[in-house]
Amino acid sequence: MYSEWASLSAQITANSCGAQCFSVLNKFPASAGREVVVSVVKQLGTNLGITQNAEPSHLVKDEEVKWCMDVICFGLSLPLQEHETIKDCVNVYCEWLTALHPQPRISVPKPICEDANLYARQIINHFHNLFVPRQGESADTIKRQAVLCHRVLRTLQQTAQISQLMDRQTWDTLLLFLLAINEILLAPPTVKDDVGDQLCERVLSVLFEVWLLACVRSFPSPSMWKTLQESCSMWRHRVALVDQWNRVNLALTSRLLEFSYGPAFPQLKNADEDGQLIPVGMSNDCVAQTWYRFLRMIGNPTALCSPHIISKSSHFVQWALTHEKGAETHQHPCLQQLPQIFLNAMKGISSQVDAFLGLSKTSLIGLTGGGARNAIGSSSNSSNSNNNSYTHSSSSTSAGPVQGSGGGGGGAAVASGIGTGIGPGSGSGSGSGTGGQAPTPVSAAAAPTTPTSTSGPPSASSSINSLPLTTMGAGTELAVARPKCNSILHVFHEWLFEAAHIGGDTWRQNRKKQACEASKRPSSMIMEHRKGSISLSQPNSLNDPASLPPTLTIDKYESGRAEAIGTLCKIFCAKKTGEEILPVYLARFYMALQQCLKITESKECDETLASILLHSGDLFRLDLDGINVLLPGFIAALEIVLPDKDLKLKTQSMAFNRTELRRSAINILLSIMVLPLHYQALPIRDLSSETSEKMFTFIQLKSRLMNILMNALQVETDAQNTHMLLGGLLLCVQDAVTFEETDMGGTASTHMHNSGGAQHHEANLLSSDNAHALFVRATYLVCHRLISSWKTDLNVSLAALELLSGLARLHIRETDALECKRAVKWICDYICYQCSRPPPAHSKDLHSTIVAAFQCTAAWLMQHPYLLQDKDCLQTVLEVVELGISGTKSQSKSGDIPKFKDEKELKPASMRVRDAAENLLTIILEQVGYFPSECGPESISSLLDELALMKHCNSMVPAAAASTEQAIAKFKYFVTENSTILALLEEPLGNDQDPQPTVTLLIRGPFGRHAWTMQLRHLPRSKSGIKYHAINPGRPIPMNDVSQRPECEQKNFPDGVDKVQPCVADYSIPTIDQIREQYGSASIRELEALLENQSIHEKLAWAEADNSVDSLSHSQECVPPLVCQEFHAARLFLSHFGFLTFETRNPHNPAEALGTPPQRPLIVLDTKSTAFAADLDRLDKLSARTHDTVYVFYVKTGQTSAQQIIGNMIEETSHTYDPHFAGMLQTLGWPVLVADHSGWTGFAHNSWSLKGTPEEQQQQQQQQLQLKSNVPSELNYNGSQRVLYWADVSAEIAFVVPTTWNLRYNSDTSDGGSLSGSDQLGTSNVWARCESEAGTGAAKSKPRNLSLELDTSTGTGTGTGRSQKDPVPPTRRKGNVTKPTLLAQAPAKIFLVWLESYEDYLNFPLEDLLAYTRTGEELHSLQQPRAADCHVIFVHSLLSGLLRVKLQGPPGRMSFATPLVDGMVLSRRVVGNLVRQTALNISRRRRLDNDNYQPPHVRRRLKVQDIVQKYKMDLSEAELLAHLFQRAI
Hints:
Helix content: 40-55%
Radius of gyration: 49 Å
Low-confidence stretches: 362-475, 521-546, 745-767, 1265-1269, 1308-1384
Number of strands: 18
Structural class: mainly alpha
Shape: elongated
Number of helices: 54
Strand order of the largest sheet: 11-12-13-10-14-15-16-17
Mean pLDDT: 74
């Protein structure tokens, strides 16, 4: 940089010698000179005003002043015993120097005032004598000398600051003097507590601060800069040099950033005193020039690793020659500080790199003292993207002056360094205290650190501060307007790359070569120093490590090497999307990393390895060219750090956070998990060897990656790390399964098996890593850890259960039924354990895990219905359901006598747990093996309602089919169990010609609406075609012969009765004569007449019968009666199903009355109210499943406004999309037409409605004509016509791609204006959810024990007891929503954002896009959605075809769900599946975390109870039975 300029070293030497021989008193004996000085100086000192009032000086001529100065010059060189005299000399000169001040002191002689600069130069040169170390002085006198030196330094610094008179010559003299005293004090080897050691820090700080001042007042010439650089190279064995160098560099860098990148760039905050280092008037150009020159001032810091170079000065040679035992120069004890000095230098460079990257820091550890001296703070993490404009202007302004006055190759480096760019990572820097200095004050933003004693062994210098950590590898925020990586590397690459290679194989091989080429480097002047140099080519100097002391072996410099490679990793990790990095830099970086990643046989983790892992979290996510050559090295490093519980450390002094190291390693693991299946048989070349012996293919690494992942999960103890590993595990299994499902995957795997001859172990690797093996290992491991150690941690439990749910959904060809059964058993055991914990442990979090476990069990049973065929599995599951609902099991042990449920007390763990258990029970009974039904997955309810059934009814006139009220009037409505509405239609449907007692039921319960038709049959359907009777049964013809009746006399008594002797009793019955006498003959005659008439009638009747056609002689065939066409089918159904078995009781006794409605077996509803149909419709609009919406956006490079992003969805720009975006959309769900869709559409007004009436279709055709949009068809999922939809048995999710239509639609519905008539019903449906919750009946008595009824008095409020008046659906949300349980928490807004440029996530306009994402539910939530509550899943497509994920969301305890993890890299095969699972899991977690959330079936049940309260008919038993005989109209 200054190679063509002459050095002023000779002048410094001349001045030093001249000061010592200036005085004529040197010609006389020392005692004579001392006497002259004492007498003269004492007299001069009395006039200064120190002890008495100051007087004007009596020296009025130049000769007089010069004579006195001659005396004082000699006085300053006196031995330190003459302390008072020396002190007076100093006082006189310090006073006379005020001649340069704006107001000189009165005691300054007149000649000096008249020519201040001339005399000042002489005084400054004379001061040299004071600083010369005296030999053999005591510690006390040395301290006195140091005090006087401090006084002089303070005076000179103050004079330089306030003087307006100093000319260029005086400035040069002052700077050369400061260089000279630094030389004389600091160049010799350090001796503890000598004057050089005591003044070291001070003389350096004054030199640098005055030099900075000179840069403003009188910019030093290149010769001066060259001299400064040469001098500094002689002081590098002093710790203070590098500390002061760092201090000045950071202060200059802070100013440089201010004007280069503008106020929005994160500010580099230094300590207050460091902030004042830079003089006020320093221009921007001057700052740039000074910054670069100071940066290069100490030469190449890697020279610090060579004690031979540092110790080659004449002072060290002199020490070696005078050493009594004889020694080499590099064996001086002071050189043991070199590893610490090297580390501090690297930390300083690292801190500057951090500053250029705009790294946000809590603290940057001080580099100049024992405490934290500097802090980098980020004033704005998300800087405005417009800051890029600073880049070009700054580079142009700074380039010119460098080349103009600096010369050489410095210009380009400065310009690019300031103007264009820098790199990655997280902060670094750690302070270590210097010998005698007190810790500096800690700045407000910095954390204090413990000083490391400089006298300690260098290996102990590394502390946690030297390896700063980020919370998550993917979470370090870099400045948006940061310079490019190339720009930072232009400035720092030489030092960093060399430092990263120190101690490596390449370093050892190339050391000689580098030394020979040293003359080409800017640091050449260091190696050709003026004071005699030791030849660098001496083999003993460089290549004989045995000659080095054990404390200076190359491995002691590892801390500095770790800092350097960590800094390089940060720079390369700062690469932006599309940014180019020079291939030469990439090549050197990869070589350095490969050297540093070499694993020793002892399998220990050293500082270098830890530093690389801590700062390389993003390396494999950035599209770096050729980065995959490092894959084997990184995998080997991960194998050391992750699988072992106790990390083997190379030295125990390595103090860093192991959890953070593991987290960073996991981040790297998550970014390389999918590479083996992505690249498959592609070979990975080895950087170091030409041959193909060591070549791996990607697929060979899969087994090692899986083992790392499984073993890491086995030993991980940190919750966040476990969460990340679980996400990665599901990604692996999902990727393997999807890979094997595709044809390509099948053929590829067989091909690889066959080609496994070359690598004999390849087939084994493949076979052990197939999807089924991974599935089994993952299931076993996660279940085992869940039971053993994760059960107490909420987030880890939820993540594990989410993973198990994800595993359940995988379709693996050879699924092992035993494994699935074991998984279900483990989850059930987990529920049992959690429920059995003691009461103090029962918290909201605990119950959340139980609810999640029930949901997980449902997922396994739905996907593997054959499990319920297994007796043991069925019993286990049902026992757990019983435990959830009732709080205890019927049989706690297998041998116990079961307790029936009416004997048990109902004490569930909590209402949420009971709801979840009920839900699982219903799924087992209704859905397992039957989902999806004929209606498709979009509905678990029947798609029939009253209106649809009446269309098929014989009695319904088609013209009247339009009215729901008319259809409802045909039904009878009953409520049973206070939670299920039965609608009974007694008319047979039109397609059944066979008259049977038929009843059609619509059952509306908590879990949906179901339609059944029942017939009472006496024959099975297979025989129903056979007639019950033939027309001619084929009986024989009757015989018409009338037989003769033999005449015989009837005997009433036996023949011999008259012979029996009568007794008294016989006379008790009167004879007829006696009767006649008693009653009179008239009555007897009347009776006789009756008998006679009767006999006549009978004879006539017989005669008539004999002569008629119908007589036996003319008998006809029997004809059956006409078939009955009228049935009371509802009564039959209710009776047969046990709803009418009233207990025997006295209806008139009040104690035995029917009781309140919830206790009655059957409640009749009054359907005559006009609002009844609307309430039923609102009930039908309450889905029995959860529903969520994900909004998908596409962000092109550089887009920051909502209008631009929404505008991407128009047809004109469709050809510019990433083609993989449309592919991802198709994997999220299946496209559905909103007009035909009966599930959740993403909008409350048209979801869960039955489509298909002519009026609706006509209306929708009109709407579609109006909404002809210009959105390309494959992306047109904005909800106007089509939407992407996915559902399982318990959840629905809609994926909406918003366009400008969404804003228009949303503003129409949310403004509360009157809607058109066709939309009126829709509005009431939206409001139905709100109204259904607003008070569900006032009086609620205790339900029966047998009921699964929710005890609604707990947690739901008593309600408002609505009047019977028909509610009017409001157009605007009123304040009458009394239940905070409705939507106290706004539904989770989940955004899926495709980024063309990864950095655009920083400027994503979340707030503005909320307007495009309304569903209609926001009107009824107590809290409007906020941008801070939104979850955003960013997906960025890498050049390799893989996808990088970035998650952003509210900082909650449960906010981030798996399987996606921040920073994960996915393959396109699985992105849709994993995004969908993550969105569902995010929503589930929000519901678990919401205290007021009610599951869908509970809300439906409450709505039913609300309907009961409004429409029940209080009928007595008799009225109820009578009601059954009345026909519906």
